[in-house]
Amino acid sequence: MSILAVEDLSLSFGGLQVLQEVSFSVAPGEIFAIIGPNGAGKTSILNCLGGFYRQDRGRIIFDGQDISTLTPDRRAALGLARTFQNIALFRGMTVLDNIKLGAHHRLRSGLLAAALYWGRAHREEMALRREIEDEVIDFLEIESIRKQPVGALAYGLQKRVELARALAMRPKVLLMDEPVAGMNAEETEDMARFILDIQEEREITIIIIEHDLHMIMDISDRIMVLNFGRRIAEGRPDEVRRHPEVIKAYIGEQKGG
Q1: Which residues, in sequence order, are CB contacts of 51 under 8 Å at separation 6+?
Q2: Strand 173-177 relative to strand 205-209: parallel, antiparallel, unpaired?
Q3: Average per-residue pLDDT in the chain?
Q4: Helix (H) and strand (E) counts for the chain?
Q5: Please, which residues have CB within 8 angstroms of residue 48's CB and are 6 or more apart in sequence?
Q6: Residue 112 has pLDDT above 50, yes or no
Q7: Is the dihedral angle over the CA atoms 117, 120, 121, 127 positive or is it negative?
Q8: Is 81 helix (H, G, I), strand (E, B) or coil?
Q9: What φ, ψ does residue 2 adopt, rounded to 5°?
Q10: Which pLDDT value is given to residue 135?
Q11: CATH 3.40.50.300 boundaries in the chain
């Protein structure tokens, strides 16, 4: 049984075919990686799953529901969260306030109560803050920076804050777009550990795209490989590593510069 299934996903921009009838499914609690050379269509798949791109053809089934035409906010409300390759945080706001934004869709107070910060709105805000501090900030080991403005933080910590904001949404499925891009070896190890902890302790399904193949081979349950918008391989890391089409695609990329 899958928590997310993609059927014959196709996407084009003008005359450029970006995705060509890509199909795959992801089991609950799985770490499913999507890899491929530059321009293979990896981020385009995440953008289709999150609702930022509208596919030309194909269906996306999430937790038994067809979400192919839903807006990004509706998909988020159903439990689909996203981190971005380029950090999408509010640099002038504190770490805590950035993380709280991830949970705004869960608040139920009316506009007037929220504006007055009174009654139910105040109780919701305090409960949300306690939850974030207990379950997200402690989990990602960022207690010491929770009051700092995001813009003052090192790059690796900003990536961790973005992950915290996604976790504050209480996702069923977490989409991660190159979470260790630009990180040093120590930061990469920390992020890999957090990803595994998210899967094991929180039982969140993770779909990840990443260029760090060593990390992907270490943490993934299954891997799908794209090349020029087509799926060329899928399987366990040891199977994918030996697949002739995968070897050909990556050797071709290296030869091309």
Answers
A1: 67, 70, 71, 72, 74, 75
A2: parallel
A3: 87
A4: 10, 10
A5: 9, 11, 19, 54, 55, 60
A6: no
A7: positive
A8: strand
A9: -105, 150
A10: 79
A11: 1-79+171-257
* Number of other residues whose CB lies within 10 A of the CB of residue 85: 17
Q: For the beta carbon of residue 64, count every other beta carbon within 10 angstroms.
A: 9
Record the tokens describing residue 6, joined without a space.
């993609």
Closest residue by Cα to residue 85 from 54, 48, 42, 49: 42
- Residue 254, pLDDT > 60, answer no
Question: By percentage, how much of the chain surpasses pLDDT 90?
Answer: 65
Q: Report whether pLDDT(105) > 70.
A: no
Q: Per CATH, is 1-79+171-257 categorized as 3.40.50.410?
A: no
Integer-rounded Cα radius of gyration of the chain: 19
* pLDDT tens-digit readout, 190-226: 999 999 999 999 999 999 999 899 999 999 999 999 9
For residue 39 the two structure tokens come to: 């321009």
